[in-house]
Structure formats: C-alpha cells, structure tokens
Amino acid sequence: MNIQLMLHRHHRHHLHPPVVTLAPPPSTPSINTTTKADNRSGTFRTAIIIFVPMSLLLVLSTLAIAFFRLRKSEDVQKRLDSGGPSKMAWTTVVSKLFKFSRHGGLHHADEDASQSVDSLRFDFATIRVATNDFSNANKLGQGGFGWVYKGKLSNGQEIAVKRLGDCSTQGEVEFKNEIVLMSRLQHKNLVRLLGFCMEGKERLLIYEFVPNASLDRFIFDPIKRLLLNWETRYKIILGIARGLLYLHEDSQLRIIHHDLKGGNILLDSAMNPKIADFGMARLFVVDQSRGNTKRIVGTYGYMPPEYAKFGQFSVKTDVFSFGVLILEIVSGKKNGSSVNAGNIEHLLSYAWKKWREGKALSLIDQTLRSGSNSDKIRCIHIGLLCVQENVAKRPTMASIVLMLTSFSMSLPLPSKPGFLLESSTNSNLSFPGQFPSWTIRSNQSSHHPINISINEASITEPYPR
C-alpha cells in the first residue's frame, strides 16, 4: 500500500513538475541624468568665465604695448619734424623697437639690430692712426658736417672717414640716421658703411674708399667730362636707377633718400655709381605711400615743388631728383646755374622748351660725339617724365629701370615739369647762380605753402666734395 502510494506520487511529479515562482530581481537605483547634465553645463560655464576674460586681457595688453611703442616713435619723429631738439634720434627707435620688413610689414623689436650696429663700432685710436692723425695730406674734401679723410687700416684696407665738426642736435640725428640705415642696406650701387666711432665729442663715419670722387666733379668739369663717354654715362644712369629701386622696393627697409644729386653719387675705379649720404633719408612703413613734414631739407634744383612748398614727400620725391640728374648727365649742365647764355634760365625749363620745339638734340652735351642720338633722346624723354609737375604721372623706379633696359617699350608723352625755379622775374622761388644745400623751417601746416627762409648752412653735403 505504501509502495503504491509512493509510486503514484513519483509518477505525478514527472508528469506535472512543480511550478517555481521566481522572485523579481533586486531593483537598481535610477540614474539622475538631469543632475549630470547640469554638472557638465556648470563646468563649461566656469571655463568660459575664466578663459574669455584672460584672452581679452592678453589681447588688450598686447595692443596697449604696441600703441605705446608707436606713440613713442611718433612723438620722437614729431619733435624732429618740428625742428625741436631731441636727445634720441628716431632711427634709434627704429633699430631697438621695430623691424620693418618688405614682406612682413611692421614687426616687434628686432633684438639683432642694435647688436648689428654695435659690431660696426671702431675705437678712435684706430681711426686716428689710419688717417695719420687726420693730417691735411689725407683730406679728401669738406662736407656739411666737417672734413672727409682718406685712411688705411692695419690690414691694408683703404677707407674714407667723415669727421663731424660741431656736433649740433641736427648733426647727431643725421649721424645716427646714417648708421642705422646703412648698416641694414647692401647693394652694389650704394656706398658701403664699414663702421662708426662715438667717443666723447668725436663722431666718425667710416666708409669704403671710392677712388673717383663724386659725379658732379666730372660732368660739370670741362676737362674731366671728356672721360665720360656716352656708354659710361648711360651705365651711371642705369646704376643710380637700380640703386634707387633697391631702396624703394627691394631692400628689407623702404627708404627715400631725400637728397639725390651729383655730389651724392660716388664713382668707383670702374666708374660704377654708388649712392652716398643717407643723413636725410626717410624710413617708410611698407604700405606707406607718402608723408608730410615741416622740416624741409635737401638741395634746391633737385627737390620737387610739392616738397619744397608743402613738405609733401614720397618715393616720387627721389624720382624727381633722379630726373634732374638724368638731364644733367646728358646735357653736362647743372640745374642750379644758367644754361641759356644771356638769360637766367634753368635746366628744367630749358629742356622742356627745347623738347616742345622739337630741338632736344641741342640739349645733348657737345662732347658726346659717340653713341646713338636716339638713345640720348630717349634718356631726355625719361628725365622729363620723372620731373613732371603731376606727382601721379611720374613713373616708379621699377618702371624707369624697365624703360632704360627695354628699348622696344614705348614711352608716354611728358607733361609740364614742376617749375620750382624758372627765372628771377617769373618765380618767387628763384635763386640765381648755383644752389647751396639749405634747411628750411616752418611752423605752418603742411597744407599751406611754406615761407622759405635760409636759416643755416648746408647739412646735406656728401663726401668727398
């Protein structure tokens, strides 16, 4: 009986297994997504609050420093332009605060600039020995700042030494100007600055020695001009043009020479021209096209009327001076003296009159018997284009070099030159005889004509003279 009951239960268990009720899994705590999102948002806001003010502070600080430096440089330049004394030349600001690069524009301090200048420093004892104690036998000539001496260094290198006389405030400015600019310029048609000396009251500039003196000693001398045939004169014209092109467009600085004339063009042993005397040069920012000044410096007969009258200058200032030089080289006549016997008539008005009359051949130096007359006429044509009264019509130096080297290039007709000087009866700005180099000061606005007065001796004479 019991056995039957047990078999019966076993049989039921296999046919109908017991139902097992599973307990639900333990509940997992729910994640509060809202809280996490709020945390992330708060962190982002905190980062913004910290980062943005710091960025703005950095930008404002950089702008403030740049503004301060620019204002400091401009203040120095204004003091110089107004003719007031300044203990620090604007070129010192250029060398220590800024680096002007043709491709990079305005950059911050070029720390190598002052080191480069310092590497050119000579001690006075060395130069005194080289010039035999500045003996009279070694004098090459006298310039606006003092005498120029020939010397020889211990290694046998010949040098030319410009020794400043009375070192006025202006002299100090031009002295520093030339050091800073010339130390950064290298071109075969620029005279090379070898060094300088500043000891006590002594101020010396040391250049490479250029044996054939200056261009004006040849073209205005009835004997020496015979040494300059047309081939040589053309080479001189082209060399000056290439030197100016380098200054205006191809160097790491953008320079306006401001006192281009025959006395500032030196000739080496092969009669290659070298532009000298950068005491009056102006430094331009890369994208600067023109400027104004109340301090007019330069040489009458070579400066354009917009500069002499209003103090307005640009690269076209040098272009005008170059045009005068071309006409002087081709004609053998100086713009600062009468070129028409019996009448007080200066070179630009004379050349323009002959051009309009179709008698440009009569302008050519009679000693130039060789060479193509058409090439000489072309140079006169280019010269007249350079001295046009309308500044915008004057060509750039790049165009001038192309005109001089590409004879297939057609030239536009020139318009009236800038007659700064016509005759003693027709112009209030006419001066008979040769023009000295004068400095004119005016406190008037650059938008009004400047009253001309001769206040001091030349400060623009080159070496040698």
TrEMBL record:
GO terms for cellular component: plasma membrane. Keywords: ATP-binding, Glycoprotein, Kinase, Membrane, Nucleotide-binding, Phosphoprotein, Receptor, Repeat, Serine/threonine-protein kinase, Signal, Transferase, Transmembrane, Transmembrane helix. GO terms for biological process: response to abscisic acid. It is found in: Membrane. Residues 134-407 form the Protein kinase domain. GO terms for molecular function: ATP binding; protein serine/threonine kinase activity. The chain crosses the membrane at residues 48-70. Coiled coil: none annotated. InterPro entries: Kinase-like_dom_sf, Prot_kinase_dom, Ser-Thr/Tyr_kinase_cat_dom, Ser/Thr_kinase_AS. The keyword Coiled coil does not apply. It is a single-pass membrane protein. PROSITE patterns: PROTEIN_KINASE_DOM (PS50011), PROTEIN_KINASE_ST (PS00108). PANTHER family: RECEPTOR-LIKE SERINE/THREONINE-PROTEIN KINASE SD1-8, RECEPTOR-LIKE SERINE_THREONINE-PROTEIN KINASE. This is Protein kinase domain-containing protein. The lineage of its organism: Eukaryota, Viridiplantae, Streptophyta, Embryophyta, Tracheophyta.
